[in-house]
Every structure is written in C-alpha cells, then in structure tokens.
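User: Please predict the structure of the protein below. I'd like the answer in structure-token form so I can feed it into my own downstream comparison script.

Assistant: Understood. Taking the following sequence of 120 residues as input:
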Amino acid sequence: MPEGTTIDATAEQLAGIKYNDDGLVTAIAQDADNGDVLMLAWMNAASLQMTLAEGRMVYWSRSRQELWRKGDTSGDHQLVREAYYDCDADALLFKVEQVGGGACHTGARSCFFRRFGPDA
C-alpha cells in the first residue's frame, strides 16, 4: 500500500482549532487528483493528531464513540496528501488519495451521490 504524507502542524495551529461542545470538528475528505468531495466526517483532537502523524485518515465515529481509521474494515483507505483548516478554524479539509473502491460506507466512490431536484 502506498504511504500518506505526514504533516508537521505547529502546536499553535493545533491549539487554534475550534471544536464543538462535543470536542469534535468537521473534516472533509477531497480527492487530491480531481477535486471530488468524497466524504464529511468528524475528528477529535486525538484523531486529528493521528491523521497528521500517520498520513492516513483517522476519524471519530459518533455512532460508535471510538476512533475510526478509514479502511481498517473496508480496505478502502484514505492517504493524506495535503491538510488545511478554514478561516474560522472550525472545519478541516484534507486532500487525499482514495485507495480502494470508495469513500462511502455504501461502496460508492463519494458519499455525495444523491442530488436534489425532480429529475435526480
């Protein structure tokens, strides 16, 4: 398996992230090659630090209340290529290499495959 890119965030950058009342921040995974938004999930401070250190996406599962290393059960990993945080420091964006069939738990490449509208 290819390796992800580790990111050396500063202590100041990490301390500036604004988590919600549950200690979570939204994390968007975007395909590094074509810009497709693959999924939105949640991170806590530990999963953010693990993601940056390992170069592989690690999320916080709200339903299971545990760390969730993307691909451990499905085999569909996400390798970090770049990492960003927004102007308010309350949302994260990761450009990733999607390894395997898809990002969505349904097996779809992206979680955003349902479109609004009458002809959708």
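That's the full token string. The chain has two helices and six strands.
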